[in-house]
Amino acid sequence: MILRIIKNELHGIKRYLLFEVGYIFFDLMTLVIINGVLGDIFPENTEIRNLLLFLFALLLNLTFYLQAKKISIGIVETIIGKIRWGIIEKVHRTDLESFEKLGKSSIYNTITMDTQTLSDVAHTFGWVNDALLICASLLAYQFIICKPAFFFTAGIFGLGALIYTTEILLAKKWFHQAREREKKLFDAIGGVIYGFKELKINDRKNDHFFNQALVKRSAENRLARTRAENALAFGNVTASFFEWAAFIPILFIIPAFGRFSIHELAVSVVSLLFFPFNLIKDTIPYLLRGWIAVERIEALIKTLETLKSDEPEGAVLEEEPGRFKELQYRNLCFSYLDRKGNPAFSIDHIDLSIIPGEILFITGGNGSGKSTLIKTLVGLYTPVSGSIEKDGEAISTSALRNLFSVVFFDCHLFDRLYGLGTVEVRQVEMLLKTLGLDEIVSFRENRFTPLTLSGGQRKRLTLLEALLEEKPVYVFDEWAADQSPRFRDYFYHHLLPTLKKQGKTVIAVTHDDQFFHMADRVLKMDYGRFARE
Q1: pLDDT tens digits for range 160-214
Q2: Among 8-17, 344-353, 356-365, 519-528, whose mean pLDDT is lowest?
Q3: Which of these three, 126, 146, 166, is where a domain ends?
Q4: Structural domain that includes position 130
Q5: Domains of the chain: total
Q6: Alpha helices in 195-276 (DSSP H)
Q7: Which pairing describes strands 404-407 and 473-477: parallel, antiparallel, or unpaired?
Q8: Which of 474, 469, 467 is nearest to 505 (CA)?
């Protein structure tokens, strides 16, 4: 994908190279003028045309340089934007099962960290490109002035580049290992942040976790990074040695033959002084990190391209969810697969009929398959067998999802009301008051603030957003589990009957058996199936 995006920018790249070559030409021209003046040190009558020619070359040099940089900046930001959007678009079309297997952290880190690293490095690459073109031009100039100096310089630089490249590849290996160990370290840090209560309550567990997870993984990450940086440092020292070693033949070997003028040797020395060694040495480590970022981006793109997509490109979404008389699930089966492709856990033989205005409770122990069932019923998981029909006709996955509004147990709270169009502020404020959030959360310009809420408050605000969607079927995954008695009573005795009167279907996953009488049906899950009463 990256190569395809770059090919699409070939026109801009050609323009950039045109101005880059112009910049290098006039940069070299200024050096030629300087060496020409140095060849006639302290002349009695300095010609004004040399000064004018120097200023002319300098002005064109800066003009071409600025234009080349403007073009390169535009190209880089366009390419990075397309790469980032391409990844997001592929994630957008990926089904939930594949997304969960891939993992949130790898996607998030690549979209944010790796693409940003690539963006920074891409701009740095422009500087290295300048430096390499200048080096090539100076070597060509040196070849014209003094061929022995050119061959000595090219040979020394070639040997230095070979040794330096070896160190860079070694550093790249250690940076890769550091990145992998860094992921494990971040997981451990996540354990500190999200498992703080569990660790704090048990000193022995806290100390063991600290020493085995944090200290050990931090040391492993530090060791890999230290080795990588040491390889870079050795490479820089090697490059510095060969940088100065290039002066040895010009100053101590070539003059011994006595066949070269002082001017030729002086021009060769001045040419070496113009070589942008430090720029190349300082930017190579950044290019190395960019190289690693490109590999990780390419790996993620290839992985995403192999995943299932339940939303083909160009698909038109159904605007209105539509009503139904009956939603039928016949002999549904869905399985989680292990790494070898064998079923690890399954729900099967699911036969269910849903009608408008019905309250359905689903209960069962931990691991019985309730969450998997919900994800399959609403179309987030694609069943491996069975059929789903709306009013006797097969329904697509996209159309099925459009019937449901779901408040998940681990719901994510968005700060804005996306996908709802114009919303009456008064209606939102009334719901905030009903849900006890009016003194905590404010709604301004289609946005909720603040979002630093407790678990129960977050679920109530997510419920508010779900109610505004006005879908035919509402699914609540243990919504009342962490609510106070006041809002638990509101949920069962007010909200569910109100939705029923409106002709909405309610599917609630719950363990509150004292409220089972509020349901029209109570279904129990056991080992991936509906248990027989």
Answers
A1: 888 888 888 888 888 878 877 877 787 777 777 777 777 777 778 788 888 877 8
A2: 8-17
A3: 146
A4: 1-146
A5: 2
A6: 196-200, 203-209, 216-245, 247-248, 262-274
A7: parallel
A8: 474
